[in-house]
């Protein structure tokens, strides 16, 4: 007897008196297999049906078959199911097991769901985005138009307080599971690859001949790994090591595997052989794998994380939660005592998070938000969130929907958006299907949508080109055996693809015969169609002729140089990661510039840009055609409007800090004097280069408004404009207190250098200063002129701002030294009595 059996009467009774109930049942309790059947005859259903939501297709189908057998019937009678591309339901069906997307469409198309009395949300602890959406819609239906609708949330490990609050203080029933003891062994991860460690542990187990604490040596082994690639590596290495044993069967199990192969992994081997099933987290909860007595757990999983800035989703390998570790361990104790080997240590176990993160916090919300908008929501704050997603994710989804034409500028769903939601693919792919024109384009679009919705039909490492895959599909349709030899095709995947194509053609009401096309038509359509779906992922090759590209959304991506698409100027990127600064392209197709211009005609912006070309010393104009962050093309403009020239000229003046003007030596000298005097004279304006730039609209722009070229600007007398800044009195004050030149005692004129650090300086031969008793002062007598006294070789021999002290003291040391060097020059003992002038004695 299953543990749930004792709880069934209470559950039936509670649902008779309340609309909402939460069942927290541990693995093995029988919640998915015994409970639904016990509710079929409940009086409170009043002849209405039960809908049971399962997160995975293989689980929905497996549970339906099990429940039908319990009733002694075939699937499709009282118990039926509906999953993607597969439906077994009749007029007699009273329990429908459906996957998440199916339930959402049912609620959207018929909100009253008058034939449904109870909706069961199974495995709700997985907190998929679709389950959150379906529960939100179901609660609103219950609270508005179906107050008799009953909702039952079932889960293994979940925050029941939160769910109970969300469902209006729903009662919680806790049911124990049926589990045999499972021993746990921890093996710390070393530096070796995961596949090698798994193979080594398997070899040790099989050599010991004992996989459980009960001593059973023929139980099946379940190996949890992060992803498909890890499964393939581990199977390959294990097969090489263990392949000699004819009684061992190695099987994969992951979400992208064809459904028949998934079902094969769930059932015991027909020949009674021992199985090793390599799986992802798909086998944690909803799937029961018969005969497992040992679990090897890597402790890792692949998690999708959405980056709203780039619009990309990255796949990261991360440690699982404690709850997931418990679920995985429990797989070994469903039928007898078992064992679990964890490939991490106990310290890592203590650091694991308690529960896995809700998908709504990590996922691309585009499809989710479209469904909410169709339901009638438009604002984030109005939505009855169970777990509110990050606002940037919500806004990014809204922007994507708008770019696809599925919502308008007010956030209202367009006619295209209404149709898109019912097709059964992502909003991007739905937009592509609906925008395709004519039977040929629609046929290619259906194949593209199916190809991009399912797993790759090529084996890994075969390039990123989507066109190559569609070409392989055409070859396969013509001659399957020849195509399998010519292309690296995964046969199971391509057969699944053909089923999906057929379903999509029905969804868009496309007649099969009208969608046949030639290879030329195929090539001409692919890029254009993908651009309908991924307008933000148009990519242009960067100018360095590498495999680096820029996307229309501004992000950088790259191709490896050995990829067949390397060198393509334009791409539409379908899949790439967002882990690094530049994401790696995983899936893309080439597109011509002609198709880009044709497809994006209304979104392309043509603008005129004006800028200063420093090499040509002129302001130039260009017409630039842009789409998002991409420049499509550019051309030169021969005529520049005067207002645009003035705007650009002003920008150039500011960016060059006025250096573009004709700064003569006279202008530089004037500014140095004025700036220096402003520091010492309170009545004189504080003039600096920065101030000139700041006030250029007052002293400069009015006088260059008629300038039509940089060459004309260079002819403007900057010195006259600078003088105009000062009044007549201020000009005279500048000439007097910060003179341009100094007149020596010998009446020689020498330029004064206004050095910002050293002060006003005059460089002059020492002999020219004979008779100058004291240093003259300027700036109203505040600052003495600094003299740099030169030797006959014009080299400084003394610097002083105090001539009187110099003549009394250090002159005599200088003269003594110089007489030895320059004996033909004057170095008198009484310099103040000597006539100023030439240095040589013969000129004195």
Automatic annotation (TrEMBL):
A Gene Ontology molecular function term of the record: hydrolase activity
CDD domains in alphabetical order: DEXHc_HrpB, SF2_C_RHA
InterPro entries cross-referenced by the UniProt entry: DEAD/DEAH_box_helicase_dom, Helicase-assoc_dom, Helicase_ATP-bd, Helicase_C-like, HrpB, HrpB_DEXH, P-loop_NTPase, RNA_helicase_ATP-dep_HrpB_C
SUPFAM superfamilies in UniProt: P-loop containing nucleoside triphosphate hydrolases
Organism: Neptunomonas qingdaonensis
Source lineage: Bacteria, Pseudomonadati, Pseudomonadota, Gammaproteobacteria, Oceanospirillales
Pfam families listed in its UniProt record: DEAD (PF00270), Helicase_C (PF00271), HrpB_C (PF08482)
PROSITE patterns assigned: HELICASE_ATP_BIND_1, HELICASE_CTER
Keywords, comma-separated and alphabetical: ATP-binding, Helicase, Hydrolase, Nucleotide-binding
Every Helicase C-terminal domain range: 197-376
Domain Helicase ATP-binding: 12-176
UniProt-recorded name of the protein: ATP-dependent helicase HrpB
Keyword Endoplasmic reticulum: no
């Amino acid at each position: 007897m299953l543990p749930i059996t004792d709880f069934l009467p209470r559950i039936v009774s509670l649902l008779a008196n309340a609309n909402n109930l939460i069942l927290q049942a541990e693995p093995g309790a029988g919640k998915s297999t015994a409970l639904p059947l016990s509710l079929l005859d409940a009086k409170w259903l009043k002849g209405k049906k039960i809908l049971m939501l399962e997160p995975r297709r293989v689980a929905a189908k497996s549970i339906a078959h099990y429940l039908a057998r319990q009733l002694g019937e075939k699937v499709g009678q009282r118990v039926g199911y509906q999953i993607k591309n597969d439906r077994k339901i009749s007029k007699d069906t009273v329990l429908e097991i459906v996957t998440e997307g199916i339930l959402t469409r049912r609620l959207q198309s018929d909100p009253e769901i008058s034939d449904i009395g109870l909706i069961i949300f199974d495995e709700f602890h997985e907190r998929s985005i679709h389950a959150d959406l379906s529960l939100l819609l179901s609660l609103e239906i219950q609270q508005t138009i179906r107050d008799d609708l009953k909702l039952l949330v079932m889960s293994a490990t979940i925050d029941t307080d939160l769910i109970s609050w969300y469902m209006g203080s729903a009662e919680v029933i806790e049911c124990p599971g049926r589990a045999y003891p499972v021993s746990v062994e921890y093996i710390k991860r070393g530096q070796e690859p995961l596949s090698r460690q798994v193979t080594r542990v398997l070899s040790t187990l099989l050599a010991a001949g004992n996989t459980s604490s009960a001593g059973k040596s023929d139980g099946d082994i379940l190996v949890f790994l992060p992803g498909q690639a890890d499964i393939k590596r581990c199977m390959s290495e294990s097969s090489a090591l263990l392949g000699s044993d004819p009684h061992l069967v190695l099987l994969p199990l992951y979400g992208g595997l064809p459904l028949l192969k998934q079902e094969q992994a769930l059932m015991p081997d027909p020949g009674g052989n021992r199985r090793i099933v390599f799986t992802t987290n798909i086998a944690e909860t909803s799937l029961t794998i018969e005969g497992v007595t040992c679990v090897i757990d890597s402790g890792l999983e692949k998690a999708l994380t959405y980056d709203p800035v780039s619009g990309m989703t990255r796949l990261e390998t991360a440690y699982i939660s404690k709850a997931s570790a418990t679920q995985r361990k429990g797989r070994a104790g469903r039928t007898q005592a078992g064992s679990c080997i964890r490939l991490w240590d106990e310290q890592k176990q203590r650091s694991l998070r308690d529960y896995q993160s809700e998908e709504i916090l990590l996922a691309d919300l585009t499809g989710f938000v479209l469904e909410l908008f169709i339901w009638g929501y438009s604002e984030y704050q109005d939505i009855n969130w169970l777990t509110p997603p990050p606002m940037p994710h919500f806004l990014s989804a809204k922007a994507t929907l708008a770019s696809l034409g599925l919502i308008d500028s007010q956030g209202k769903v367009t006619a295209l958006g209404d149709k898109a939601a019912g097709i059964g693919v992502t909003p991007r792919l739905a937009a592509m299907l609906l925008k395709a024109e004519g039977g040929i384009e629609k046929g290619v679009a259906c194949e593209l949508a199916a190809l991009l919705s399912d797993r790759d039909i090529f084996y890994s490492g075969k390039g990123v080109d989507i066109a190559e895959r569609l070409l392989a599909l055409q070859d396969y349709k013509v001659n399957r055996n020849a195509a399998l030899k010519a292309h690296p095709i995964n046969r199971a995947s391509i057969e699944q693809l053909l089923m999906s194509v057929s379903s999509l053609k029905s969804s868009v009401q496309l007649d099969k015969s009208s969608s046949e096309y030639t290879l030329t038509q195929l090539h001409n359509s692919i890029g254009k169609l993908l651009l309908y779906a991924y307008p933000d992922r148009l990519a242009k090759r960067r100018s360095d002729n590498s495999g680096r590209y820029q996307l229309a959304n501004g992000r950088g991506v790259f191709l490896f140089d050995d990829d067949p698409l390397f060198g393509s100027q334009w791409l539409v990127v379908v899949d790439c990661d967002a882990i690094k600064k530049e994401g790696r392209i995983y899936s893309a197709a080439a597109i011509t510039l002609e198709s880009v211009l044709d497809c994006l005609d209304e979104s392309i912006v043509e603008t005129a840009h004006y800028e200063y070309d420093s090499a040509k010393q002129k302001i130039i104009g260009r017409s630039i055609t842009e789409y998002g962050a991409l420049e499509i093309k550019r051309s030169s403009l021969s005529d520049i409007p005067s207002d645009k020239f003035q705007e650009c000229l002003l920008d150039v003046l500011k960016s060059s800090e006025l250096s573009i003007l004709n700064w003569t030596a006279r202008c530089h000298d004037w500014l140095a004097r004025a700036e220096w005097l402003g520091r010492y004279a309170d009545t004189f304006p504080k003039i600096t280069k920065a101030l000139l730039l700041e006030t250029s609209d007052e002293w400069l722009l009015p006088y260059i408004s008629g300038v039509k070229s940089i060459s004309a600007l260079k002819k403007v007398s900057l010195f006259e404009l600078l003088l105009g800044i000062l009044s007549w009195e201020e000009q005279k004050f500048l000439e007097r207190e910060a003179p341009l030149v100094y007149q020596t005692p010998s009446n020689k004129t020498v330029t004064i250098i206004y050095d910002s650090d050293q002060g006003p300086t005059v460089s002059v031969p020492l002999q020219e200063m004979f008779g100058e008793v004291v240093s003259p002062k300027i700036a109203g007598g505040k600052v003495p002129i600094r003299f740099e006294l030169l030797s006959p070789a014009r080299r400084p021999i003394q610097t002083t701002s105090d001539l009187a002290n110099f003549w009394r003291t250090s002159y005599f040391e200088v003269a003594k030294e110089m007489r030895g060097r320059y004996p033909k020059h004057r170095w008198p003992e009484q310099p103040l009595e000597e006539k100023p002038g030439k240095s040589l004695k013969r000129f004195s």
